[in-house]
Amino acid sequence: MDVIKTLGWRKFCIIYENNDGLVRTQDILKNRTWQISLRQLPFSDDYRPMLKEAKSSGVTHVVLDVERKNIFQVLKQAQQIGMMTSYHNYFITSLDLHTVDLEDFRHGGTNITSLRLVDPDNPLVQRVIQDWVFGELRYGRAVEPTQTTTLQTEVALMYDAVQLFAKALDDLDRPRHIDVTPLECDGDFTWVHGNSLINYMKWVQVNGLTGLIKFDTEGFRRDVTLDIVELSKEGLERVGRWDPHTGANYTRTYSEVQQGIVDSLQNKTLVITSVLAAPYTMLRETSEQMTGNDRYEGFCVDLIAEISNILGFNFSIKIADDGQHGKFDAKLNRWNGMIGELLSQKADLAIGDLTITYEREQEVDFTMPWMNLGITILYRKPTKQPPNLFSFLSPLSLDVWLYMATAYLGVSLLLFVLARLSPYEWIASSFSCRDQEDRTLENQYSLINSLWFTMGSLLQQGTEQQPKAMSTRIVAGIWWFFTLIMISSYTANLAAFLTVERMESPIESAEDLAKQTKIKYGSLYGGSTWNFFSTSKLPTYQRMFSFMESQNPSVYTKSNEEGVKRVQKSDGQYAYMMESSSIEYITERYCDLTQVGGPLDSKSYGIALPPGQMLRPLTWFYSL
C-alpha cells in the first residue's frame, strides 16, 4: 500500500490467482480512496481472454498476485495482446521477481515494480550460493546456471532460520553442556532446555540472507526492510527501500530520474493530439502543398517543437477526430476529444487550449500550467447612434426634464396667485380727476403672462412684466437663481455631448447578463467553460446556466470560431464566454469586438499525459 501511494496510483486492477491473493490484498481493497477492479486468472493456461477484457476496459495499472512460476507466462501473454507498453504499469506482489527471467520485457518500456527481501548483490548471499554450488559439485550433482545467480525467498528464510537456531543452540551450549534426549511426539515429557532456547532466539540478533533478524516478545519478526525494485533496460534495479517506520522511500536522485526519462525518450516518436484553435494550433496558410507537422502552426506547435529539441524525441501532430477538448459522455460511458484519445492510447500527449479541471485530473495527468487565465465575455462593441431630432434633450435625463416642467408650472401658478392677492400688483388702467368712480384696476400677471414671465426667465430672455410686490419679487428671485444653475449645467453638458461621442455598452459584467433576457449568451458545449457553469454553486452562474440550457435554438457552439462569428453577426444580441487569453487574441484582430468585465474564475492550461506516465515531473517545462 505504501508503494502504491508513493507511485500515485488512483485507479488500478488486481489480478489474482487464488483466494490467498485476496487475503494478501485485503487491506488494499478496504481503501476507498482508490478505484479498484478485481479479476481472477482462469484455471486454464490461456489468460488472453481475461487480459483482453481488462485491456478493453481501459486498465493501465495492474497489481499482479500470482505464484512465481506463473509470472513469466502471465506477462508474456499480456505482451502478446498489447498490455506491455509504456502506458502500462505493473506491481508484482511476489518477493521472488528477481528469480524470473525478464529479458523479453526489458526494452518494452513497461513500468514493472516489485518488492524484494533477498538482495542478490549482497556479499553474504553470493558467498552462500557459491558454497552451495561447490557442495553440490562435490557430490557430483549438477546445478542449473540460473540457480547460481538467484535465490528464492523461501530458501533464504529457511537458511536464516537454521542459522538462527544453530547460533542460539551453540551460545547456550557454551556456559553449560546441553544434552539432547529422545522425545516422543505423543509423550508427556518435554526437553528441559526448550523454553530457554526459544527465549534466547527471541533475544538474539543475526545478520542473515534476508537482512537483520530480530524478534519481539511475541515471537514475530520486526524491523524488516524490503528493497523496491523496478525493471530497466539493464534488468531489475533497486530504486528505494521500505521499512515499517517510514514507509516507502525512493533513493534515486532527481538527476537520475530526469536522466532516465530523457534516455527513454531518445529517438522516440510521440503522437501529439490537439484541436484547431487560434492562436494555439492552426492550419498554415500557404499556397504550397504541406504534409506532416508542416501543415500546422501556432503557439502550441512552437512549444512542443522546443520541448522535442531539448529532450531529443520526434513527434507527429494529430488533430482529435471529433475536434473536442475532452468531456465524459455518460451515455457512452467514455471520454471524447483529446482526453479520450489519451485514454484509448491513440496519443502520447495532448496540447492545446486544454484547461486543467478536477474531472480531467482524475483520468489523466497534467504538467505544471504553462498559462494562467480565466473566463471572460466576448461582446460586440457598441456602434455609433444615428442622429436624433431630439438629441438636444440628451444632456439631462427624462426625470430632470419632468421635474423642471413641474417646477415651471408650479412657479407660474404661485406667481399668478400672489399677484392676485397683493394690492401692489394692481394698476389703474385709466384715471380721471373728474370722476373717481370711472377708474379701473388691472393686474399685469394674468395666467398667460405668469407663464410667459417664468418662461422668459428660464430662457434668460426677460419680459416686460416686472414684479412690484415683495412676495412676487421673492418668488421671481428664487426662480431666477434656479434657472441660472440649471441653464449653466445644461450648457456644460450639451457642449460635452456635442464634442464627445458616447457609446455605452448595455452589459458591463456577468451580473448584467444574468439580469436580462434580451441579449443571448453561450459557450463552447462540453468545454471547461460549460463545465464551470454546470457545476457552479453560485446563484448568478446557476441562473445563467439554466438560461443557456433553456434556449431554443441553442446558444452553445461546436467551436470557438463559431462563437466569434456568431458575436460578429448578432448586432449586439449575443455574447460569447470563453478563456481570456483567446479573447485577447481575438480582440487584437477584430476591431469590432471587445472584452466585457473581468475574469469569472481562475484556471490554467497544461499538457495532458496518459495516467501514470513519468513525463509529468520533468523540469524542462520550467526552463522554457
Automatic annotation (TrEMBL):
Domain Ionotropic glutamate receptor C-terminal: 269-623
Any one GO molecular-function label of the UniProt entry: glutamate-gated receptor activity
Binding locations of L-glutamate: T355, R360, S528, T529, E579
UniProt KW keywords: Cell membrane, Glycoprotein, Ion channel, Ion transport, Ligand-gated ion channel, Membrane, Postsynaptic cell membrane, Receptor, Signal, Synapse, Transmembrane, Transmembrane helix, Transport
InterPro entries in UniProt: ANF_lig-bd_rcpt, Glu/Gly-bd, Iono_Glu_rcpt_met, Ionotropic_Glu_rcpt, Iontro_rcpt_C, Peripla_BP_I
Membrane topology: Multi-pass membrane protein
Residues covered by the Ionotropic glutamate receptor L-glutamate and glycine-binding domain: 279-344
Record field: transmembrane: 400-419, 478-500
Sites marked Crucial to convey clamshell closure to channel opening: I507
A Gene Ontology cellular-component term: postsynaptic membrane
Intracellular or extracellular location(s): Postsynaptic cell membrane
Source organism superkingdom: Eukaryota
Protein family per UniProt: Belongs to the glutamate-gated ion channel (TC 1.A.10.1) family.
Descriptive protein name: Glutamate receptor 1
